[in-house]
Amino acid sequence: MYIVTDKLYFPPVENANKFGMVAVSGDLSVNRLILAYKSGIFPWYSDDEPIIWYSLNPRMVLFLNEFKVSKSLRNLLKKKIYKVTFNQKFEEVIYHCKSIQRIDQPNTWITDEMKKAYIEFHKAGYAKSVEVWKNEELVGGLYGVDLGNIFCGESMFSKEPNTSKIALVFLVEKLVKENYQFIDCQMYTEYLASFGAREIPRKEFINYLKSVKI
Predict the structure, then answer these.
(1) What is the Cα gyration radius of the chain?
(2) CA torsion, points 57, 211, 88, 28, in degrees to nearest 10?
(3) CB 4, CB 16: distance < 8 Å
(4) pLDDT at 140 over 80
(5) pLDDT tens-digit readout, 161-184
(6) Which domains does the chain carry?
(7) How many angstroms separate the CA atoms of 126 and 170, rounded?
(8) How far apart are CA 32 and CA 39, in angstroms?
């Protein structure tokens, strides 16, 4: 397993083990994160672990022209109960993603170190957020990393039913208008598959990354 040093470098993702682990240790500086995402690598670890860098094979992606919206969600959107904004409250969004209780996930993977790093990543213009409001209350949202023509989803939250889904709908609409290719969802979940996301070979995913614009 490669140990990350001060040198701004990651080994080829083909060197990852069967779990997708590419490297360990290092830092979450803006430049390190840019290199990681451009290389198809992302950090994922717990508070009691060193930073662990992954590149999964296969990779879960949502091609924008394959995005599916359920009839019930379309009906909810028509009611116009919620307002959606972009990049207005990034720190609040990542706070809620970190702290909200999830039935199937007792412990968050967003460490304090990671939260701080992605706030700096946002200030540098790379991490972006979508906010869903009901009146003046933030009730849902998501955040991720913007590679210029690919969006790498990181986490989402809902304080009311379906509000994270609403954030995703508005994000997809925005990315379609701006000619993005797809949303990187990293790993398979039934939730993401219900929107049309599917797995592709890591080699294919890496080929797409050759066109990123940052």
Answers:
(1) 17
(2) 60
(3) no
(4) yes
(5) 999 999 999 999 999 999 999 999
(6) 2-56 (3.30.70.3550), 60-200 (3.40.630.70)
(7) 19
(8) 11
Q: State how far the alpha carbon of 202 is from the alpha carbons of 50, 62, 71, 199, 207, in Å.
A: 24, 14, 32, 9, 9
Partner residues linked to 63 by β-bridges: 182
d(CA 206, CA 211): 10
Judged by DSSP in three states, 125 sits in: coil
Which tokens is 85 given? 């904004």
Peptide bond before residue 43 is cis, with ω within 30 degrees of 0 = no
Alpha carbon distance 62, 151 (integer Å): 10
Cα distance between residue 61 and residue 84, in whole Å: 23
Return the pLDDT at 106: 45
Give me the pLDDT at residue 196, please: 98
Q: What is the pLDDT of residues 67-106, one digit of tens each?
A: 999 999 999 999 999 999 999 999 999 999 999 875 554 4
